[in-house]
Amino acid sequence: MIRKVFAKSAFFLRIIFVVGLFLILIIGGFTYRHIYNLTDSTKQVVSTYKVNVELEKVISYLKDAENGHRNYILTKDTTYLEPYLSAREKVNESFAELKEIANHGENQEENLKVLSKYIDALFTNFSETSTFISGDETLSEAFKTNFFEEKIIMDSIRQKVNEMIDFENSLLKKHQEQYQSNLKFTPLFLYLVLLITLVLIIISYYKINVDFKNIRLINSQLLIFKEAAVQLEIIGKHGNWVWHIDKEKYTFSDNLYRVLGEKPGSFVPTFENFISFVHPEDKEKFAKDVEDMMKNEDLPFIYYRIVQKDGTIKHIKGYGKLLINNEGEKRIVGNITDISDEIERFLEIEERNLELEKNNAELSEFNYVASHDLQEPLRKIQTFISRLEEKEAKNLSSFGSQYLERIKVSATRMRLLIDDLLQFSRTNKPDKEFVLTNLNELLENAKQDVTETILEKKAIITNDVLPTVLVIPFQVHQLFLNLLSNSLKYSKTAEAPVIKIEYSLINSKDDHNLINVSKSNYHKITFSDNGIGFEQQYAEQIFELFNRLHNKQEYSGTGVGLSICKKIIDNHNGVITAQGEPQVGSIFKIYLPE
Amino acid sequence: MPNDYINIILADDDEDDRLFFTDAFDELKMNTKVSTFNDGVELMAYLNSDDAILPNVLFLDLNMPLKNGIECLNEIKANNKMSDIAIAIYSTSASEEDIEETFVLGANIYIKKPSSFKQLKKVLSEVVSMNWQYHTNGLNKDNFLMRL
């Protein structure tokens, strides 16, 4: 998010910079042109004045020549011819100037040529007049004509020069006007451009200021993160290192030194210095891992041990990842973690688990073997009793028969206990397969198993339709059988047993018996009877092994049946509860996860 | 005449059990000839001998020293000459594992040794007079264990 904002801002600033640069260039260009124009105009003005001056000069030389010439005519003194003689040269000089400067259009050039012609004509005339003077024909007709011609040519020259000066002046005026109009918009334009540039600079300043504020904010957050990271490193026993690939340099965090049992910064962060801490047995593998890291620019999870200076061995887990920053600089950022505590705890738990498993297996084995091996002598005792009864009954006294009967009852009870115990230990074995089973079938089978008792006690059993659930079939069969047997066994003597089996699918939130369970939906099956019931305070106890609420002369239970029920329900991650009221009945609720 | 009586063999290491077994047949008076062996080694030595008379029904205890019932069952079923003998497993326990294993190996019925002599006689007479052909055709895991 922040990066995006800055990227956008940088883009914006770049545009402002380019636009600003462009505008300044425009201003420069305009100023240059403006000054150029100014110089140009000045040159024009200077040139025009120079032309005018030269032209005036030409007129003045010609006048001097004319004057000198006339004086000569009057006095016939050749000294008056001085200006006339030098005039020709001076006019030529002025013409040379005029030729260079008078690039003011074809018109002026043409005029200049015409002027030149007139001047040539004038001087030809002068020299002709002079010959008349030397021949003393001063007042001859030819002389007069010549003299008159002189005047006419001089007038033409005057007129031409005036024409040219006028032209030059009009040219100057035109230039001036054009320059004025140019000058009129330029300042406005420049001012506008300057204004825009100023606005852009202000926007840039504002933008940079905002960015700067953001950067400051982010920097302060970064500082907090950094501090938090440092604290986390200490708490979590982490150490951080960075390998600057391009510079081939390492940096280690303070806590990395602490993990190694050293003071922060106590040695130069190099690979050689680090590996000197690695456990000698792990050195080779560690060096190879680091070599691979340098080659692949990646470090997967690695595990090794280090030996601190005081000899303490620590288990270390390491990890690193390549990081390329905006400038394309490559670094691998990695962490090491002291996992010694974890490993110690893990080993401890492992050991305890093994012990527990062994104990469990032994117990299970013992339970099974005991019940199993006990059966054989007992069976034989029972068989011998039956033989004795059959064959020797008539030889026994009434006491003998009575004792034999007692022995028989005890043996039968012992068989019951062993059978139940065997059943219980079988329920203990966890590796049973869960099969999607129709519970109605299991209930029917269980009913079949107790048909005799049902008939004998005239019991009435009603049940709802049960669902199909993922269960260990033989165990749930046993569960149903045990619950039915229980209800039939603890029935009232005067009343026929009535057993009601009800079913509903419920949500765990809707039943106070389902607290701290993992699933949300449960199959609830309720077995309620009208038997002798029990005091509610024993509701928990009755599920304990060999726990009986009645004496065995009255009721023949072994105290194992309901323990088996509990175990089976536990195996299914379900819940079983008992609820009783003396002489009213008992209710057993079982909950199986959907 | 060998065919006049039903030839029965019991292999069981327990002396009392052998006694109950023979006594029961004595009392049943079913025209049977009962021979007993003390363990699997003795049993297999007899069955493998040339002059052995193969029994109609072989009662096999599982838990025997030297060679147990499962090993005997394996050997018998692997031998063409003996594979047709009807085999009744005769054991103190009726654990799921034992029932499963012997059923898979091809035993014909599984009897849990009863705890009264009267029941023993009843079971033995039923087994001996059983129609093996019929029983074996309809054999499945549910009726494999003989219900008392």
TrEMBL record, chain A:
<dbReference type="InterPro" id="IPR005467">
    <property type="entry name" value="His_kinase_dom"/>
</dbReference>
<feature type="domain" description="Histidine kinase">
    <location>
        <begin position="369"/>
        <end position="594"/>
    </location>
</feature>
<feature type="transmembrane region" description="Helical">
    <location>
        <begin position="12"/>
        <end position="32"/>
    </location>
</feature>
<dbReference type="InterPro" id="IPR003661">
    <property type="entry name" value="HisK_dim/P_dom"/>
</dbReference>
<dbReference type="Pfam" id="PF05227">
    <property type="entry name" value="CHASE3"/>
</dbReference>
<keyword id="KW-1133">Transmembrane helix</keyword>
<dbReference type="InterPro" id="IPR004358">
    <property type="entry name" value="Sig_transdc_His_kin-like_C"/>
</dbReference>
<dbReference type="InterPro" id="IPR000014">
    <property type="entry name" value="PAS"/>
</dbReference>
<dbReference type="InterPro" id="IPR036097">
    <property type="entry name" value="HisK_dim/P_sf"/>
</dbReference>
<dbReference type="InterPro" id="IPR003594">
    <property type="entry name" value="HATPase_dom"/>
</dbReference>
<dbReference type="GO" id="GO:0000155">
    <property type="term" value="F:phosphorelay sensor kinase activity"/>
</dbReference>
<dbReference type="InterPro" id="IPR036890">
    <property type="entry name" value="HATPase_C_sf"/>
</dbReference>
<dbReference type="Pfam" id="PF02518">
    <property type="entry name" value="HATPase_c"/>
</dbReference>
<dbReference type="InterPro" id="IPR052162">
    <property type="entry name" value="Sensor_kinase/Photoreceptor"/>
</dbReference>
<dbReference type="Pfam" id="PF08447">
    <property type="entry name" value="PAS_3"/>
</dbReference>
<keyword id="KW-0472">Membrane</keyword>
<dbReference type="InterPro" id="IPR013655">
    <property type="entry name" value="PAS_fold_3"/>
</dbReference>
<dbReference type="Pfam" id="PF00512">
    <property type="entry name" value="HisKA"/>
</dbReference>
<keyword id="KW-0812">Transmembrane</keyword>
<keyword id="KW-0808">Transferase</keyword>
<dbReference type="InterPro" id="IPR007891">
    <property type="entry name" value="CHASE3"/>
</dbReference>
<protein>
    <recommendedName>
        <fullName>histidine kinase</fullName>
        <ecNumber>2.7.13.3</ecNumber>
    </recommendedName>
</protein>
TrEMBL record, chain B:
<dbReference type="InterPro" id="IPR011006">
    <property type="entry name" value="CheY-like_superfamily"/>
</dbReference>
<feature type="modified residue" description="4-aspartylphosphate">
    <location>
        <position position="61"/>
    </location>
</feature>
<dbReference type="Pfam" id="PF00072">
    <property type="entry name" value="Response_reg"/>
</dbReference>
<dbReference type="InterPro" id="IPR052893">
    <property type="entry name" value="TCS_response_regulator"/>
</dbReference>
<keyword id="KW-0597">Phosphoprotein</keyword>
<protein>
    <submittedName>
        <fullName>Response regulator receiver domain-containing protein</fullName>
    </submittedName>
</protein>
<dbReference type="InterPro" id="IPR001789">
    <property type="entry name" value="Sig_transdc_resp-reg_receiver"/>
</dbReference>
<dbReference type="GO" id="GO:0000160">
    <property type="term" value="P:phosphorelay signal transduction system"/>
</dbReference>
<feature type="domain" description="Response regulatory">
    <location>
        <begin position="7"/>
        <end position="128"/>
    </location>
</feature>
